[in-house]
Amino acid sequence: MMDHQSLYYKAYTDVLEALEAQNYGQAKALLTAAQQSAEELYIVNALENQQKEIFNQR
Predict the structure, then answer these.
(1) In angstroms, rounded to a whole number, what is the distance separating the alpha carbons of residues 47 and 2?
(2) What is the helix (H) or strand (E) element at residue 45, kind and residue range?
(3) What letter would DSSP give residue 1?
(4) 0.85 exceeded by the pTM?
(5) Which residues contact residue 44 at a Cβ distance below 8 angstroms, ignoring those fewer than 6 apart?
(6) Is 36 left (phi over 0), alpha (psi -120 to 50) or beta?
C-alpha cells in the first residue's frame, strides 16, 4: 500500500495534468479516487494502531 505522502504527490500531479488539459471530469474522478484512498489508508492505520495498543496491554 502507498504511504500518504506518495498518494498525495501522485494525486496532485495527475490532477494538475488533467486540469492543464482542461479535462475537468478526469480531474474530479482523480480527486475522488485520491480521497477514497486516503480514507482507506487512514482507517487501516487506525486499526493497526488499535491492534498495537491492545497487544501492548497484554
Answers:
(1) 16
(2) helix 24-57
(3) -
(4) no
(5) 1
(6) alpha
Q: Give the pLDDT confidence of 7-19 residue by residue, as tens digits.
A: 788 899 999 999 9
For 43, residues 6+ apart whose C-beta sits below 8 A from its C-beta are none
At 29, the amino acid letter reads A
Task: Name every residue whose Cβ is closer than 8 Å to that of residue 23 and which is 6 or more positions away in sequence.
Answer: none
Residues 6, 11: Cα–Cα separation, whole Å: 8
d(C-alpha 41, C-alpha 31), whole Å? 15
pLDDT in tens, 26-49: 999 999 999 998 899 899 999 999
Buried b / exposed e over 37-46, threshold 16 CB at 10 Å, is beeeeeeeee
